[in-house]
Amino acid sequence: MSSSTPASTTDLLSSLLHKPLRITLTDGREITGRLYCIDDKKNIVLRNAVERRKGNEVTPLTIGLKSSSTRSIGMVMIPGKDAVKIEGLKKDISQ
Question: How much is the pTM?
Answer without folding.
Answer: 0.73
